[in-house]
Design brief:
This protein has 1262 residues and is mostly beta strands. It has nine helices and 69 strands. It starts with 10 loop residues before the first helix and ends with a strand.
Length: 1262
């Protein structure tokens, strides 16, 4: 076969064919390679093979790397369990490694590790002291070949849970660490970095350029787990950094412990160190720290408030300068603040702190401190101070005004040294020294000077000499306390002029004291004497204190007498006082005895100083005063420590009364106490004279139960004429902080059972009969139970009370007063009030005892009083209701029924009073508003309406009214208007009151006492209500059944009057009253009233009259016509046919003419008629009667009052004997007189009547 040669046209085709074959072979090779790698990495078997090869490679280098199991593949991610790495003595163990990645991201130029979780890391690493020195690390040389990577790297969800690192003697535990990170080129970005390792948690973000100088920026928030000081929050902070690893600009805000803002520059030199351009960090700071206004944190620091503080730190840790300025306020007391300025200049150099100046400046003074602190070899402190304060008294709270302290100056030194710990770890020896050689102050113009100091060498305390002196007053002290608590101290005080120390204190004092022995068993020798001590109103003539050791027991005794003590407005005397303390700190006894004009006290206690406190017992005590003699019943335990004061139950008895107290005070703040008082006598509240008077009247023995209660009296008593008998008990508990009184929780329960209350009053004059002596009236109330509960919880008071009582009158058959009252009240923290009082009387029979004029009293009385507003301005309102009430009043014949009365108010400004009642066939209702009753602006409105309301129903008097009245009243006056209809009157008048007889119209009152009894006509200058202004316009209307009978008159009246009352004037009355029908009987003869009118034209007590009365006898019609006014009646006689006046009067009275009168009785009747009717020509008529009867004397005599008028009849028996017979015209008094004329000079007169007399008259002419 012969080959052929390709033509030029075929060569390119052949070349392309061979090229395709080569590419196919290469692709096949790549495919076979990728298939082999995928089989190795993408399958479990392949991944296990790769791990085995890696394990063999690592272990070939004299290290031990193991894992217990593995899951997953290298293509998607692999999990390893029980991983351990050991190299020599160093070991790393990881419980679990979990990883996930996505290889497909490599096609996008990025390797993304989607998850990396590491848990249970344990690292034990030990340094090798023999290891050769490694060459310095040059970070740039390490990173330069690696970075930038050809692809970017991203790590997500990286987390470490639980890691324990032990490096030599250091131990550290990490609870968790998490982050997200990316590396692109040389830029490292760390986000969501969280770190939790006790005692701090951290979250941060960071950007770092991985090439010199390693530019850095980021921020972090950190938080400590616990607070550093009690009462403060756990510290936290926010940090922002910007710069590079050599120089950073930082800003930081500290919170929690205090609020501090810091900013400035920090030089690290870290980049130079990491690249071997320096051997160590070059740390320098220039920071400024600012503290805002806040109270310093920590217990006991509440009184210090920083208004502004600036601190600047500059330099290196070996040479750091400190500069500070601050404004500090010190709260010394309530509303008393010391304002100071602080300045600090100091330097920190290695192990030495140099204090150039610490200055505290007040408004007038300066305290400057300087010195050094060195801790290179132990601790050494050497400080000096200077104090210069011209006005120290301005900064001492509560300093009395009488004490002035000025020009305080002092300087001194303080030194403290402590050696370094010994090789065995024991603390080094300590030494402390303080000295002042210049102490000076002026107190009330007296100069005090002093010097002294103390030393402590770690074992012994020594006060070499401390002296304080002013003028003649001097105090000196030397003391030492050696190893074994051996004590040796001497002190002396010589103060002949105490006023130099305190101006208000007078007298003199001298004391010498030595103390030897040990702290546990000191031996005390003390002599102190004070004479003529005066402080204000307190005076002590002599005070002696002695102390000595007897038989190994110390005894300190204080005695004094005749002390004058001011108590209120009086001065009490302590006649004798003794205080004795005997024993040692671990066992001692106290005896106290005080005798005074106010109280006598005995007290005996023992105790011991133990565990930094005191514990003892109150063995016995007795308190004897006007409030009773109280004696302790049992031993009570007492304890006192810095944290707690405790008093177990302590009880006293006084007769049948007991008082118990127990209390606990914790941290000088929290109080828990209980007080129990049982059966305290209420007679202690009684006024002694009132109690004695009531006991004498009632026969009550107020002290029958316990005679000793008669001597128990409180300083405050009930008002006079009141007395209590019974007992009261109280149980109270108190808990809470004593610094907040309003916040205490308080519960009080008070009760009293079967008590008595007596009220003494004097009887009224109307209740006395004749010459009966006035005996006091006693009102007796008895309560079965009184209870009061009060509590304060959450700053709110709740008060409630209950009382059930009865009032009995053993001398009365009336029902006893029984009732109950319940009250509740709430008061909020803002002193707002909300409460009510309820009254309940379901039987009103007891009213008969208080108002004897009433009988058969029935009804119920209920009330509710509401209390609102505030404690400063309370608002009182409520309702008082009288319902279904009735009573009888025999004096007026009344039977009142269906009585309903209500008094109500929504506040204390307006009270509404309304009521309804029935009497007879009629009824009455009223309504009234009382405005501002408790102020000077008080006023009242009243409306009364009724129909046929009976106001009297007696055999001689029966009256019914139908009022329709309106009235107002205030302090300016009273005004009444309306209509008063009197539909019915049935009156039979048998007697007239004294006021019905007026004085004569011609009487003039020249002067009269205010309380003298002057008749109506003389009081024309005064209103009917005296000085109370009264106005009104009332229409008085008489009905058709107004009948009046009496003194011979029998008439039915009709008519209407208009009464107009003006201020300070008698009422003006206008109108007419008419006798519709009637008759008048005189001397047994009846005259018919044909016409009768009373015309009122102004004055109410002197109306005009027009009365015509007639009598018909046989064929004669005679009568009398009366005109004029009530005070000036003008009467005239008339007749048909016309007769003389004597005959008219004789016919009218006797029934026959005057010529036919023949008896003295008829003559008396005629004369009486002339007098009573006021007939004109009365004397002529009298003469006619005298002649007709043949008398020598016939006359009417009137002496003084018209009531004394009498008819005189006289006749001469002989020329020397004259007989007179007088008959009273208005009084039933008759008399017989005989005059016997013996001669011209001697006359004998005998009178027989209401009294008998014989008079002998001898006449001498000059």
């Amino acid at each position: 076969m012969t080959g052929t040669t390709a033509t030029p046209e075929q060569r390119p085709r052949q070349l392309l064919k061979w090229l395709l074959r080569v590419l196919a072979a290469v692709f096949l090779l790549v495919l076979i390679t990728l298939s082999a790698i995928s089989a190795a990495l993408g399958t479990h078997r392949g991944s296990q093979w790769v791990l085995a090869q890696a394990n063999a490679f690592i272990n070939a280098n004299s290290v031990n790397f193991r894992y217990e199991s593995a899951e997953g593949t290298f293509l998607r991610g692999i999990d390893l369990y029980g991983v351990s790495y050991r190299s020599g003595n160093n070991m790393v163990r990881v419980e679990q490694i979990h990883s996930r990645w996505n290889p497909m991201t490599l096609l996008e130029g990025e390797f993304h590790l989607q998850s990396l979780r590491i848990a249970g890391v344990q690292i034990d690493w030990h340094s090798d002291p023999n290891a050769p020195t490694a060459p310095p690390m040059v970070l740039d040389d390490i990173l330069q070949p690696i970075l930038p990577l050809p692809i970017s790297v991203r790590l997500s969800n990286a987390r470490l849970d639980g890691a324990t690192i032990n490096y030599d003697d250091l131990n550290y535990t990490i609870s968790s660490l998490g982050l997200n990170m990316s590396l692109q080129g040389r830029a490292l970005d760390i986000q969501d970095l969280t770190f939790d390792a006790a005692p701090v948690t951290l979250d941060a973000e960071l950007e770092l350029e991985l090439q010199s100088p390693y530019a850095l920026s980021g921020n972090a928030n950190w938080q400590l787990d616990d607070s550093l000081l009690e009462g403060t929050e756990a510290p936290s902070g926010e940090l922002t950094v910007d710069g590079d690893l050599d120089r950073l600009q930082i800003d930081h805000e500290l919170s929690g412990l205090t609020e501090v803002t810091s900013s400035g520059e920090v030089q690290l030199g870290l980049a130079r160190l990491l690249n071997a351009r320096s051997d160590a960090l070059d740390l320098r700071v220039d920071l400024q720290h600012t503290l805002g206004t806040q109270t310093l944190p920590g217990p006991g620091m509440e009184m210090f408030t920083v208004q502004a503080l600036t601190l600047r730190t500059q330099g290196t840790p070996e040479d750091l300068a400190l500069f500070a300025a601050a404004r500090l306020d010190i709260d010394l007391a309530d509303d008393f603040v010391l304002e100071t300025d602080l300045n600090l200049r100091a330097a920190l150099r290695g192990s030495q702190f140099r204090l150039d100046e610490l200055a505290m400046r007040t408004a007038t003074g300066l305290l400057a401190i300087q010195g050094r602190v060195n801790w290179a070899d132990g601790i050494a402190v050497d400080l000096s101070y200077e104090l210069d304060e011209p006005s120290p008294g301005d900064y001492i709270p509560g300093l009395p005004e009488s004490m002035a302290i000025q020009d305080l100056r002092s300087s001194g030194q303080v030194a403290f040294n402590q050696d370094p710990p010994s090789p065995s770890g024991e603390a080094g020896q300590m030494a402390l020294a303080f000295s002042t050689n210049d102490l000076q102050a002026t107190v009330n113009e007296y100069t005090f000077t002093g010097d002294g100091g103390f030393d402590f060498d770690g074992i012994n305390w020594t006060v070499d000499s401390f002296v304080l002196q002013t003028g003649e007053n001097r105090m000196a002290l030397t003391a030492s306390l050696n190893d074994g608590n051996i004590l040796n101290a001497e002190a002396s005080i010589d103060a002949p002029t105490l006023s130099a120390i305190y101006p208000e204190l007078g007298g003199r004092l001298h004391a010498d004291a030595t103390v030897t022995g040990t702290l546990e068993q000191p031996v005390i020798d003390l002599d102190l004497t004070a004479n003529d001590v005066v402080l204000g109103a307190l005076s002590i003539p002599e005070l002696v204190v002695t102390g000595q050791n007897r038989g190994g027991m110390n005894e300190i005794e204080l005695t004094t007498s005749n002390i004058q003590v001011p108590v209120g407005d009086t001065t009490e005397t302590i006649t004798d006082a003794l205080l004795r303390l005997r024993g040692q700190p671990d066992a001692h006894n106290l005896l106290l005895r005080i005798d005074s004009s106010l109280v006598n006290l005995r007290l005996n206690a023992d105790g011991s100083v133990t565990n930094g406190g005191w514990q003892g017992r109150l063995l016995s005590s007795e308190i004897d005063s006007d409030y009773g003699r109280w004696q302790q019943t049992q031993t009570a335990d007492l304890s006192l420590t810095a944290a707690q004061m405790n008093l177990d139950t302590l009880c006293w008895d006084m007769a049948a009364t007991s008082l118990c107290v127990d209390a606990t005070l914790t941290d000088s703040e929290q109080l828990a106490a209980q007080i129990m008082l049982q059966d305290y006598p209420l007679t202690a509240l009684n006024d002694v004279p009132s109690e004695r008077n009531i006991a004498q009247t009632t026969g009550m023995d107020f002290h029958a139960a316990t005679a000793a209660s008669a001597d128990i009296r409180l300083p405050f008593t009930l008002p006079a004429d009141m007395a209590l008998e019974g007992t009261v008990s109280l149980d109270a508990t108190v808990t809470g902080a004593i610094s907040d009184i309003n916040g205490l929780n308080i519960d009080i329960n008070t009760s009293s059972e079967n008590g008595n209350f007596y009220l003494q009053s004097e009887p009224s004059v109307d209740e006395l009969a004749g010459n009966e002596l006035a005996e006091p009236l006693i009102t007796h109330f008895v309560w079965s139970n009184i209870a009061l509960q009060a509590s304060q919880q959450n700053r709110e008071w709740q008060v409630s009370s209950q009382i059930q009582f009865v009032q009995e009158d053993p001398d009365s058959t009336a029902a006893a007063m029984r009732g109950s009252a319940n009250a509740s009240l709430r008061m909020t923290e803002a002193r707002e009030l909300d409460g009510n009082v309820q009254l309940d009387f379901d039987d009103l029979g007891w009213v008969e005892a208080l108002a004897p004029q009433l009988t058969n009293v029935t009804g119920e009385l209920d009330g509710r009083l509401n209390i609102d507003g505030s404690l400063a301005s309370p608002v009182v309102g409520g309702d008082i209701m009288l319902s279904e009430a009735g009573f009888q009043m025999p004096a007026l014949g009344l039977d009142m029924r269906a009585i309903e009365i209500t008094l109500s108010s929504d506040d204390a400004d307006v009270f509404t009073l309304s009521g309804y009642a029935e009497s007879g066939v009629g009824s009455l209702e009223f309504n009234s508003d009382i405005m501002q009753p408790f102020s000077d602006e008080r006023s009242l409105t009243l409306q009364i309406a009724g129909t046929n309301f009976v106001v009297a129903d007696l055999p001689d008097l029966s009256v019914a009214i139908s009022p329709d009245l309106r009235g107002t009243a205030s302090l300016d006056g009273i005004d009444i208007n309306g209509q008063l209809i009197i539909p019915r009157v049935a009156a039979r008048i048998t007697t007239l009151p004294e006021s019905a007889v007026d004085v004569s119209s011609d009487t003039v009152i020249v002067a009269a006492d205010e309380d003298s009894d002057v008749r109506n006509a003389a009081r024309v200058d005064r209103g009917i209500l005296a000085d109370i202004p009264l106005t009104g316009d009332i229409q008085l209307i008489l009905g058709d059944s107004v009948n009046i009978a009496g003194f011979g008159l029998n008439a039915r009246l009709t008519g209407q009057l208009d009464i107009d009352q003006r201020p300070e004037a008698p009422p003006l009355t206008y109108g007419e009253l008419e006798v519709a029908e009637g008759s008048f009987e005189i001397y047994g003869r009846t005259l018919n009233i044909e016409q009768g009118k009373l015309l009122f034209m102004g004055t109410y007590d002197n109306p005009a009259i027009d009365i015509r009365a007639v009598r018909t006898v046989e064929n004669m019609r005679v009568g009398v016509q009366m005109n004029g006014t009530m005070r000036d009646i003008r009467s005239s006689l008339f007749s048909t046919p016309t007769l003389p006046d004597g005959d008219i009067l004789a016919v009218m009275i006797t029934g026959r003419p005057i010529a036919e009168i023949g008896t003295e009785q008829d003559g008396n009747a005629l004369v009486g008629a002339i007098t009573s009717l006021g007939i004109k020509q009365g004397q002529g008529l009298t003469d006619q009667i005298q002649n007709q009867l043949g008398l020598d004397t016939f006359a009417i005599n009137s002496r003084g009052d018209v009531n004394d008028s009498s008819l005189m009849l006289g006749k001469y028996i002989t020329p020397r004997i004259f007989i007179r017979y007088a008959v009273g015209l208005f009084e039933t008094e008759n008399s017989l007189e005989i005059d016997y004329t013996i001669n011209d000079r001697v006359k004998l007169e005998a009178t027989s009547g209401q009294s008998q007399s014989i008079d002998l008259t001898y006449t001498v002419e000059q």
